[in-house]
UniProtKB/TrEMBL annotation:
InterPro entries: TatC (IPR002033). GO terms for cellular component: TAT protein transport complex. It is a multi-pass membrane protein. GO terms for biological process: intracellular protein transmembrane transport; protein transport by the Tat complex. The chain crosses the membrane at residues 15-41, 61-86, 107-134, 154-181, 193-209, 215-233. Belongs to the TatC family. The lineage of its organism: Eukaryota, Cryptophyceae, Pyrenomonadales, Geminigeraceae, Teleaulax. Keywords: Membrane, Mitochondrion, Transmembrane, Transmembrane helix. HAMAP family: TatC (MF_00902). One of its GO terms (molecular function) is proton motive force dependent protein transmembrane transporter activity. It is found in: Membrane. It comes from the Eukaryota. This is TatC.
Length: 240
């Protein structure tokens, strides 16, 4: 009974740590929300240096700052949450299970970082350039006046869905490691997985083909890279 109470106390303590981490990160992010907002809009500024953002109601700019602060605090707290989960389960795990948990935790954090880089380097510039070409002054003046809230909603949606997509290799690694699936089955069902990628893109995105492709194509590429990595590991392991 005493052991259960100790575990319960530790669980509550770590939960408090996570909540405090979220609150501190949120407050800090809000205090520097103007700098963070500039980072968010930087891809837009690169494409439209002469443009400016607008807000059409009094609370819109404030809610945009809160949205940015919430997004940053969730990402930072997610990393701390993974560390807290590892620390809580560490005493009760076998060495092999602890090794698996460490690998998955590192892969989750790395994939989260790569997804953010992918959004800012590839996705956002592509989206901005694609929709920016619809500006026209040939027959009549068609110009862009971007609302800050709409732009941030687009950025946050891209970050959320692409981050979710980038967790696919982690899930596949876990399934292969636990022998739920193997490399041969991945190769045999490769075509079915490609179809699933595009179905997931259709289900997890708004009803426009461009956003669906932004989810489906990275998911497909990540699947191919994951299969290739497992093939190399499998071949290298046989040689050893």
């Amino acid at each position: 009974m005493l052991i259960i109470l100790n575990h319960w106390y530790e669980l509550k303590l770590r939960l408090v740590y996570v909540i405090v981490s979220f609150l501190v990160t949120f407050i800090t992010s809000y205090l520097y929300s103007d700098i963070l907002m500039y980072i968010y809009v930087f891809p837009f500024i690169l494409r439209f240096a002469e443009k400016k953002f607008i807000f059409t109601n009094l609370g819109e700019a404030f809610s945009s700052c809160l949205s940015i602060s919430l997004n940053i605090s969730l990402m930072v707290t997610f990393v701390f949450f993974i560390y807290s989960v590892m620390s809580f389960f560490k005493p009760g795990l076998y060495k092999k299970e602890l090794h698996l948990l460490r690998i998955c935790s590192k892969l989750l954090i790395v994939s989260l970082f790569l997804s953010v880089c992918f959004v800012y380097v590839v996705v956002l510039p592509g989206v901005i350039n694609f929709f920016g070409h619809f500006e026209s002054s040939r027959l009549f003046e068609l110009t862009l006046e971007a609302k800050i809230s709409d732009y941030l909603d687009l950025v946050l949606q891209c970050l959320f869905w692409i981050s979710l997509v980038f967790q696919t290799p982690v899930a596949i690694f876990l399934f292969v490691y636990l022998n739920i699936i193997n490399v041969d089955s991945l190769l045999r069902k490769r075509k079915e997985f490609i179809v699933v990628c595009f179905i997931a893109g259709a289900l997890l995105s708004p009803p426009d083909i461009f956003t669906q492709l932004l989810i489906a194509l990275p998911l497909w590429v990540l699947l191919e890279i994951t299969i290739l990595i497992f093939l190399v590991i499998d071949e290298y392991g046989h040689r050893i």
